[in-house]
């Protein structure tokens, strides 16, 4: 990788809207092609002009990209296409050696390749695009679940016969068998290891800090949110959380309650929860998940820095689509 002592600097740009593990996997591969990864986050205006408005704002997309463990530097409001002027800026000011993009065609509205110039001067490299996930696909999952929830809620307007026929076809209990739009994505152990490694982990360990994140099973999420959730399956959610630079380890399929056993086994000093969370009517009948750590005096509430939630993002998307 390293030519002599000078680090190899690579550049990857993108919209990174509705950040997902496909983006994380792209950045992971890009980082592996060099020593330092500089990421260009495309401006809202440039995204609007080239592919339509993003769901998340520049500020939100930037916060997500900066939180990924493979990202060393970010360039804000990057252009969508690598122009001659911007390319020279990358080479001279940012000392970039290679410009990287996924192996999917990236065309400008006029049909030309956004990376044509970089390719021409031999400073372009490619990584493998991750199948089965994209921002468009996530918007589709959100709309499909909103539609399904709406159909179930509207069930009462059907006639009695329709209702009973319907009831046979679509039982409405929580924890229902998985519906079609949920991804069948399965990570291999190698992929989990790839997502788990990062220099941040070492630093955190030296500081004596360690962040273990418990990720609920798909069944627990269905019980909480309804049968059309989660939008991302357990494996997808695990890779997304693992790609965050502040996370050391994840429990893949954590139980609803933090148990005494867990606290002992994982040697947990504090159990923390944010002030912002999804509200759920299903919570009423459920036990307090933090009863044990509370009784031990090791439960802490952290002020959530933002009010954004899965539902609030879904609301933005639904507001922009005629779905009913
Ligand atoms: N990428 C990838 N795998 C995916 C999605 C994106 O490897 N499933 C890569 C792209 O090839 C690109 C980078 O991630 O190099 C940033 O992609 P972005 O500009 O955000 O947009 P898209 O390629 O359109 O991805 P999406 O459809 O998810 O928005």
TrEMBL record:
<keyword id="KW-0443">Lipid metabolism</keyword>
<feature type="domain" description="Cytidyltransferase-like">
    <location>
        <begin position="199"/>
        <end position="275"/>
    </location>
</feature>
<dbReference type="GO" id="GO:0004306">
    <property type="term" value="F:ethanolamine-phosphate cytidylyltransferase activity"/>
</dbReference>
<keyword id="KW-0594">Phospholipid biosynthesis</keyword>
<keyword id="KW-0548">Nucleotidyltransferase</keyword>
<keyword id="KW-1208">Phospholipid metabolism</keyword>
<dbReference type="GO" id="GO:0005737">
    <property type="term" value="C:cytoplasm"/>
</dbReference>
<feature type="domain" description="Cytidyltransferase-like">
    <location>
        <begin position="11"/>
        <end position="140"/>
    </location>
</feature>
<protein>
    <recommendedName>
        <fullName>ethanolamine-phosphate cytidylyltransferase</fullName>
        <ecNumber>2.7.7.14</ecNumber>
    </recommendedName>
</protein>
<comment type="pathway">
    <text>Lipid metabolism.</text>
</comment>
<keyword id="KW-0808">Transferase</keyword>
<keyword id="KW-0444">Lipid biosynthesis</keyword>
<comment type="similarity">
    <text>Belongs to the cytidylyltransferase family.</text>
</comment>
<dbReference type="GO" id="GO:0006646">
    <property type="term" value="P:phosphatidylethanolamine biosynthetic process"/>
</dbReference>
<comment type="pathway">
    <text>Phospholipid metabolism; phosphatidylethanolamine biosynthesis; phosphatidylethanolamine from ethanolamine: step 2/3.</text>
</comment>
